[in-house]
Amino acid sequence: MQKKIHIKKGDTVFVNAGEYKGQKGRVLEVIRKTNRALVEGINMVSKHSKPNSQNPQGGIIKKEAPVHISNLMLVDPSSGEPTRIGKKLGSKDKLVRYSKKSGEEIK
């Protein structure tokens, strides 16, 4: 069984551990199988590529590598600070995420 993940694609997250600690970025992709996420501008690695149709020159390309979700915290939409996430029943009896700091629902 896979662990429930507190972040989704498009969320703004805060990195709380590692080389990029203290930086914020937008989630590009969540990889549920390995509990990791690709975050825009975070954990950049150099990848060597051969010439191909997308990159006719070839060479070294900078790209994002996945970060473990335990090192990410969602950013509170109202205050802009990192916060923990809870789940509660919202309107129409649907489960919604909310910020533990401000109590505000997260879309």
Please give a structural write-up.
The protein is an all-beta fold. It has two domains: 1-75, SH3 type barrels (Roll); 77-107, no CATH class. Helix content is 0%, strand content 45%. The chain is built from no helices and eleven strands. The protein has strands spanning 12-15, 24-31, 36-39, 44-49, 59-64, 67-68, 72-75, 82-83, 85-89, 95-99, 105-106. The model has no long low-confidence stretch (mean pLDDT 92).
What features would you highlight for this structure?
107 residues; SH3 type barrels; 2 domains; three-stranded antiparallel beta sheet; six-stranded antiparallel beta sheet; mainly beta; elongated
Using DSSP, what is the number of strands? 11
Major sheet strand order:
6-3-2-1-7-8
Q: How much helical structure, as a percent, in the residues?
A: under 10%
Number of domains: 2
Low-confidence parts: none
What is the SS-derived class?
Answer: mainly beta
Distance between the termini: 26 Å
On the 0 to 100 scale, the average pLDDT is 92
Instruction: Return the CATH class of the largest domain.
Output: Mainly Beta
CATH domain topology of the largest domain = SH3 type barrels
Which percent range describes the beta-strand content? 35-45%
